[in-house]
Amino acid sequence: MRHFVKRAAVAALTFALAPLALAADPAGAESPGAAPADVRTAQPAVRAPLPESLREGPVLYALPDGWRRAADVAAEKNFFRIAPKDLPAGKTFVVRVSMGDPTEGKTLEKAATDDAATLAKGQLRHEHTPVTALRTAKGYDAVAVLHHRTSILRQEEYWQIIYLRAGDRHYVLAVQTDDKELIVKHAPALQAVLDGLQYAPVIELAPAKDGARALTLQDVYDISDFFEWLLDVPMTPVQRTAIRDLLVDVWSVDPKAGVAALEQAEGLRKNIDAMKPEEREALRQAAGPQFAAKFREGGGIFTTFADLYDAGHKPLVAGGPPLTRQAADANLELVYFMANHVAGTHGVGPTKEQKDKWAAELAGKFAQMSAEERRNIAMMPIVWAGTSAEWPSVGQTDRDAKKAEWAKIPTVKEVADGLTKAREEAAKLAAAANTGKAGGHDPIAFAKAYKDMQTQQMQTAMISNMMRMQHQSNMTIIRNMGSQQYQYKYVYRHR
User: Fold this and answer.
1) Same domain, 263 and 292
2) Is there a contact between 326 and 381 (Cβ–Cβ < 8 Å)?
3) Count of structural domains, the chain
4) 258 in any annotated domain
């Protein structure tokens, strides 16, 4: 087995991760022999976080309150299902959402007409409304049609189908029910689903430039999902956003180098996908250190993934389980996520200095912790990844209940109190500046107030106070999540 793993690792690692040829000067002129520019050292522009949406393949969507994702998401190729939780007994109502197919030159109207012919086959009766053109809230062209058919067993069935075009692909939102009144009842929720649909392959993060194509949100998802799986490190939202920002910065300096990096990653993916399942898994389990070394040698954006591997696997403190930087960061980021919701703020995370101090204090105390405490900390990357993935599916009623529970967790309360004070101070600054943005909603005022608060916290014993509370807090967090921490699965799927 050892020889097999070594052969598989060598075969995959023959893929060359050549150093990226980033422009040496901002004007785009490369100096012979100059080292590639490392945009990771630049100050990135302030950008919004990645969309807080549910995601299946390229589809971003919102789940209406009181709805659920069907358990058999993988039952149909290229579709996933959502449905209301409160269906009447014996009734059918399911919404199928496609993950897209090439248009192959078809118009939306032609796709609708072809499906009408398919739905009519073998039926006692079939009728449908005229194909109606519309435009979604996100700006996608679409057509809609309602079908009513009766089977030879005289069973009634209704299909409401909306066809959307995004780029060079068609997508479908199809409602299937045996009760037309359910379409009427759930019309507002269906409209909300339609309004929330977005498609990552056509969301541009950086424009086409200098003969290179545009960077899309799908590019960010593809590379993040693949390396998360390959390196076996559940990525935090902060890390995914950092990868997005890094790629955008690369595109601003030398988009051709960015395209080349993505093509290299795609080549690596194809090499690994060509293996048998058992070979892929053996490679993934055994070759992590070699991959990390090769990525660091390749340089450019691939250094980020070498750092990711180190964070997830290089122990700060050895043991069973060991303490990793990924676990320490996930622990603190999850506390801040909860505190933001308790305080009514949004997107405020710990600073690098706070993370460094938290990791150092955990490392100093880890050997003296009980086995249960160490296990709880080691679980945090999975808990945080699962929480961030599942949170968009949580309805408002359940969110309110969660926030009430989180407010009782000692470490969460410590951070939430600071965020609340910063918001109150921001309101005073805004009022003093006569900005007219009362209530602390002036982003500049809040940023200054929060920065001042973080500086003060770093000079006080906040992190040390939180460290004393961490065992009780982590136990409460894990109980609060129930089985959710076990639900996180790597998004990457072999093609």
Assistant:
1) yes
2) yes
3) 3
4) yes
Tokens at 453, concatenated: 């608060």
Phi-psi region of 155 (alpha: psi -120 to 50; beta: other; left: phi over 0): beta
Instruction: Give the tokens for residue 449.
Output: 């107030």
The residue segments making up the domain with residue 135 are 56-200
Is the dihedral angle over the CA atoms 40, 46, 52, 56 positive or is it negative?
negative
When computed from its CA atoms, the radius of gyration of the chain, rounded to whole angstroms, is 25
Cα–Cα distance measured from residue 462 to residue 90, given in angstroms and rounded to the nearest whole number: 56
Strand partners, 315: 324
For residue 344, count other CB atoms closer than 10 A to its CB: 12
Model-level pTM? 0.82
For residue 356 the two structure tokens come to: 């460094």
Return the SS3 of 122: coil
160 and 241: one domain? no
Euclidean distance between CA atoms 102 and 394, whole angstroms: 32
pLDDT of the chain, 495 residues: tens digit per residue: 444 444 444 444 443 333 323 222 323 333 323 333 344 443 344 466 678 889 999 999 999 999 998 865 445 678 999 999 989 999 999 999 999 999 999 999 999 999 999 999 999 999 999 999 999 999 999 999 999 999 988 899 999 999 999 999 999 999 999 999 999 999 999 999 999 999 999 999 999 999 999 999 999 999 999 999 999 999 999 999 999 999 999 999 999 999 999 999 999 999 999 999 898 888 888 888 888 998 888 888 889 999 999 999 999 999 889 999 999 999 999 999 999 999 998 888 888 888 999 999 999 999 988 888 899 899 999 999 988 888 998 888 889 999 999 999 888 998 898 888 877 877 776 677 655 444 445 565 566 655 565 555 544 456 666 666 665 666 666 666 654 444 577 877 776
Cα 140 from chain centroid? Answer: 22
> Could you tell me if 321 and 438 lie in one domain?
yes
In terms of Cα–Cα distance, which of 299, 292, 303 is closest to 230?
Answer: 292
Residue 296 lies in a domain: yes
Nearest to 377 by CA among 414, 337, 322: 322
